[in-house]
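Proteins fold reproducibly. Take a sample protein:
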Amino acid sequence: MPFISRELSWLKFNERVLAEAAKTPDSLPLERLKFLAITASNLDEFFMVRISYLNDRKSVLKADAAGLTPGEQLEKILDRTRLFQQKQTEYLTEILSDLRECGLFFLKSDELSDSQRAWVKNYFEDEILPVITPLAIDPGRPFPFLANKTLNIGVRMRDSEGKILYSVIQVPSILPRFVALPSDGDCEGAKQFLPLEELIIDRLADICNLHEIKAHGCFRITRSADFDADEDTDNILEEMKRTVKKRKRGRPIRLELSEGFDEKMKDFLRETLPVSRKYIFELPGFLDLTALMKISFLKGFDELRVKPVVPRAAADFEDCGNIFELIREGDRILHHPYESFDHVVNFIKAAAADPNVLAIKQTLYRVSGKSKIIAALEQAAEAGKQVTVLVELKARFDEENNIQWATQLERAGCHVIYGLTGLKTHCKVTLAVRREEDGIRRYLHLSTGNYNDATARIYTDIGMFTCRPAFGADASALFNHLTGFSAPPQYNKLAVAPENLKNFFLELIEGEIQNAKKGCPCGISIKVNSILDSDIVLKLYEASSAGVEVKLLVRGICSLVPGVEGVSESIRVRSIVGRFLEHSRIFIFENAGEPLMYMGSADLMPRNLERRVEVVFPVEDALIKARISEVIKLMWRDNTNAWEMGSDGEYKRVKRRGKPVNSQLLLLQND
């Protein structure tokens, strides 16, 4: 059966993101710059996690579902990565040229005017020289530890006796990467920047003045972050702190060098670090394109980027007085970032302030730096309510943030737990238990996305509020399982991983297969971030062979190949890549003319179905089902942000026929 390698599929996704940095008639240069920075950040994480994983286990891992051994995967990945970086360089050159035309300049040191050179000299002496630390390398001073993703300058020198010496200068991350220069008379009103590394290199003679400088160049190390905590411990919080420290000192997995990097210095770095030749990338232009993200938000150039999103008040929460009364009237949904995340915050604030709310229980996976959610939970605990928060400490690259929040919540009097051993808790659930005249009622928020007010402005997610008794009973049972020693319950409405979610999906797909065989209405429509699970893919192939129409909106990784004769002829795969990161997970099954609709936190990957606590919930309100169905139909009409996968596994932009349709823009205007 046809499968696509996970890693190659991810690279294709990042290529689609990079395409947003391509020049079009209506593209804006700072918007292009933002997407370029995003692709660089994505690639960093890819090397830190996935490349490191494959490289470390290539002798023990078997071939993947696509039939590629780890070695074969790495070879294809590195070839495709080099082509990808060439495209990044091409786009960067175009963008910088366009920015120059708009009065925004990135200069080299030899382009400075006399007045700017004088200013740079003073800036160097006052602001930079006190911060930098040149590190000599000799028998008494070994090669220094260089932190992950830091930018460094290597210097090769020769002493009076002809001996070769080396030194490393870390470009200080505490200072702006691009130094704003004073305006020059020839460029009135322009903004001019000098990369910090250029400035330091220009003053190398002042820093390394004891010996003759023979060569210099910039380099950057990416370290492995493929570490998991040892959960067989008495204190998972302390173990996670140790794991985070260990990750910062992971072995080097990639070495990036500036163009024309000195060969002797390159050999010295290889021997010292060490990094295999195939993981060394010599790049023109700037190293670390992620630093361009800050430039993309530069003040004073609003016309060079799209206007920031101002989420509107949700239609379902118009004239919202008492939020609990509103939810009692019927289920409510929020569609982010088009509708304000403040409604979620207000729900938790209302629960914290309401004297009739007895308890609040919530799962937290990724939280923003200044979280209003955390503040509301602290307020609830201080008011004497029973507040239980499951903080997932193992959320990769958010461990430090979550450790801080967990500690802060505990100090406020919340009961903080860290989930089940061996599983990440990825579900998005908030439960408020309220005493009312007719007894205890449970109010519930279930979502496809994190409780993060920052990402809620750029990720598309859907959350649902309900007080249906069966949903509330399931949520209570879920929290009791997560916080105590109760066995996994039998749920009424929720489908929960790892207990039954995979079989739940397989049975739903099987139901459509049987409907097709009976001649009943059948069809499957799924929107997720990733499809990788082999059993799910094979079942979808089986559905296609039975004549079921399968429509898949998959933003990122997709190991399934559509349109293959005799295997997947009735399957279509599209990816929407635009201004917002498509993140919602929606599952619709035709069910013989009585469609079933589900949403939740899970993608169709082995990790989600087998190694995480995930929740998928049904949508039962007819109006909400209709609204979400319209969103899916709109996305299939998109001819601006949409890519379609062919039977060769490659993606092509959907051809624009007739009127342009940008689903994200239309939803932004009127969801």
